Amino acid sequence: MTTLQEDKLxxxxxxxxxxxxxxxxxxxxxxxxxxxxxxxxxxxxxxxxMEAWARQTGNELLDSHKxxxxxxxxxxxxx
Amino acid sequence: xEDWRLVIQSLISKSPISKQTMSKSDPNAPKRxxxxxxxxxxxxxxxPFILASTxxxxxxxxxIFFTFYGLPLLLKEPHAEVTPLGNPAMPMKMPFGPASFQNxxxxxxxxxxxxxxxxxxxxxxxxxxxxxxxxxxxxxxxxMCVETGVRLIxxxxxxxxxxxxxxxxxxxxxxxxxATFLSYAADADVQLFI
Lengths: 79, 194
Known about the structure:
The structure holds 2 protein chains of 2 kinds. By secondary structure, chain A is an alpha+beta fold. Chain A contains 2 helices and 4 strands, in the order E-H-E-H-E-E. In chain B, strand 1, helix 3 and strand 2 form a beta-alpha-beta unit. In chain B, strands 4-3-2-1-5 form a 5-stranded parallel sheet, with helices on both faces. Chain B is globular and about 60 Å long. Chains A and B meet through helix 1 and helix 2 of A and helix 3 of B.
């Protein structure tokens, strides 16, 4: 298993739609192009939403997995 | 017969007047969302603000046209309330106490719902439920819309009818009419009336 290293961590635990998406879009703009954001959420809608967000914004969803009660995402800023 | 239909369909889809080619001239332009918010209760206030702020977060252009009862959502202090009256689908649950208590859907008689103060009570409980679950408030979502560049357009005609002034609303909003909305919506990829 490859280990992804994040440049920034965003914790959206306990927040529901649409806040994780909005916070992610804000946070990724603070990164340089090519850097990686790790986002943690508990919203069960987050996996589908983050995939859609990445597709729409042209950023890359490197990894999306469940870790216990939490959903973990690694996103690379491409735009 | 089937063949003819297919031929006609393919002609229509390739014709220069099909929607595909009629949409925005620049194919690289961001997607655009055009919403009409026509209702001002707490439950109906959520969808336009959620969709528009999310569109903004996805790099889309977005605008909400606030008309009729949706217009007060632009007030500096919006006071959207919720009522279970005429809405039998609304869950009547308590946002406090043990889980077994919170899961009870109380069978409140309609006559009780009509008592003075019931709307205020239902609104307080609904807002508490939203807070408990981690849902943003309407002022927070509206601020997110402003932050992500969503255009908030108040309906001039509704202002005149109900006696609102531009100064009553948040300074980030603009005022316009049906033509303003239509000229924006004509180039939109998604248009919804809420």
